[in-house]
Amino acid sequence: MIKNNQYEYVEITDFAAEGKCIFKSEDGVIFVEGNVAPGDIVDLQVIKTKKKLKEAIVTRIHKKSDLRTEPYCLHHDVCGGCKWQHIAYEHQLHFKRQQVIDHFERIGKIRNVPVNQIIAAPKTEYYRNKLEFTFSNWRWLTKEQMDSGQVYSKHALGFHVPKRFDKIFTVNHCHLQPDPSNTIRNSLHHFGELHHISYYDVRFNKGTLRNLVVRTANTGDVMVIVQFGEQHDEAIEMVMEYLKKTHTEITSLNYIVNLKGNDSYQDQEVINYSGEKFIRETMEDLTFLVGPKSFYQTNSEQAYQLFSVAREYAGLTGNESVYDLYTGTGTIANFVARRAKKVIGIEYVEAAVEDARRNSELNGISNTSFFSGDMRWIMNENFLTQHGKPDVIITDPPRAGMDVPVVETILKAEPQKIVYVSCNTATQARDLALMSEHYEVTKVQPVDMFPNTHHVENVALLIRKN
Q1: Least CB-packed of 285, 346, 375, 430 within 10 Å?
Q2: Where is the TRAM domain (predicted)?
Q3: Contact call for residues 104 and 442 (beta carbons, < 8 A)
């Protein structure tokens, strides 16, 4: 029933991109956001119309889907993080695998390759090794909190409310990262309020306490980075000394004074207040040093599964030359190096390349070489002549995928195999289509790195056509 852009007693049909759901109406497909699941019987209110596309929100749920389960997090209704927490895990896995199939068929025009069953995560809670929290003097209150009559502090330490850059809700307990993450965050929040230290105001770019990063490692190491929005020496010393004395589990304690208009700190000086300048992650018999600015896969257990698939697909015998593109801190390069003749890693960020070289040295790996810069220029004819054409290319680009010039560069290198690791199967399928004239996709393996979200990692093996 349709009335004033409202749909009553309609059934949600399926999942769509970015974790949304869809309702197929007589007027076309309507995209639905929020706490909704396929099979729900709901009322909808259309909030946006673009030609043949409509977006809606749920105003009432008449009957809940059999796919549902009870969310365990008390912040589920306000947090944009674990959007699929209300979907039973086995159904999450089904829809993620189907998303891979849909992208490959619709975008990549790849229809003959069986997609393996997704590799499930052993942990659906406390699986992340890094979280970032924001201080704010404009705390977001839920309707229940506002209606309670209770007086709440305006200070918050937590996550952004979805689609609100200026509003932060206070996180009491997050199920994403193991302790001591929750303990450290809540302790620092209490300390900041108790000592009346100013919290950051994003609109005016002022306030002392600005940002908190907690990194936990599978070795037990813990890194904490506090960002301050002002050079308030007395407050900085007070906060850092409190963390040092109270939380002795912190093995690397650091801070940054960031006076910019954004929280990114790759261009900022990190000051090591106490402990070591890095933490250690292990994978098989390898140890990786992770610094404050280092990238490391945020689900350590599933990263091992992902890299194991990539290594298996590479089919190394010890005689191959491997190029690892977008190598970052060289995790994949070092992971496969002992089964290859040599590995060449290429990465745009120089600091990451330095980490990659350091990790090779730490693990006694001598057959790796790392180069920084834009790979479309680095992998030229002179480079290929000097280092030899690759037998295997492993590529793990960011969500945007590979630029067309990078794809062209790979095609000119003519590897026998390409192992494409992706965190965005839509751009992965697009790139595979660009290589389809010369390469055939023969294997596809999805890996669930981020339970309770719509995100899925995927590995595809391409073999050069004769």
Answers
A1: 285
A2: 1-60
A3: no
381 marked as part of a ligand binding site: no
Mean pLDDT of 234-254: 98
> In 10 A of CB 149, how many CB atoms?
6
| Residues 180 and 220 grouped into a single domain | yes
Task: Indicate the helix (H) or strand (E) that contains 239.
Answer: helix 233-246
pLDDT at 38 over 70: yes
Element (H, E) at 211: strand 209-216
Strand partners, 10: 42
pLDDT at 439 over 80: yes
Q: Which two tokens stand for residue 264?
A: 């990114």
Averaged confidence pLDDT in the chain:
94
Residue 28 near residue 13, CB atoms below 8 Å = no
Same domain, 319 and 353: yes
Strands 417-422 and 392-395: parallel
Q: Which pLDDT does position 3 carry in this prediction? A: 61
State which residues form the domain around 213.
130-277
CA distance 372 to 342: 17
Please confirm, yes or no, whether 21 is among the known catalytic residues.
no
The single-letter DSSP state of residue 139 is B
- Inform me whether the pLDDT recorded for 52 exceeds 80: no
In a domain, 283, yes or no: no
Q: Buried b vs exposed e over 119-133: b needs ≥16 C-beta within 10 Å?
A: bbbeebbebbbbbeb
- Cα gap 399→402, rounded to integer Å: 9
Task: Indicate if 324 and 460 belong to the same structural domain.
Answer: yes
pLDDT tens-digit map of 149-205: 888 889 999 999 988 878 999 999 999 999 999 999 999 999 999 999 999 999 999
What span, in angstroms and rounded, lies between the C-alpha atoms of 146 and 99? Answer: 39
Structure tokens at 60: 């009432």
- Let me know whether 441 and 382 are in one domain: yes
What Cα–Cα distance (Å) separates residue 102 from each residue in 15, 51, 398?
A: 11, 24, 20
CB 415 within 8 A of CB 393: yes
Q: Please state, in angstroms and rounded to a whole number, the distance separating the CA atoms of residues 309 and 449.
A: 13
Q: Is 297 annotated among the ligand-binding residues? A: yes
Q: How confident is the model at residue 246 (pLDDT cuts 50, 70, 90)?
A: very high
- Total domains in the chain come to 3
Omega before residue 446 within 30° of 0, cis: no
Q: How far apart are CA 288 and CA 100, in angstroms?
A: 31
* 396 in a labelled binding site: yes
Catalytic entry in 21, 73, 79, 423: 423
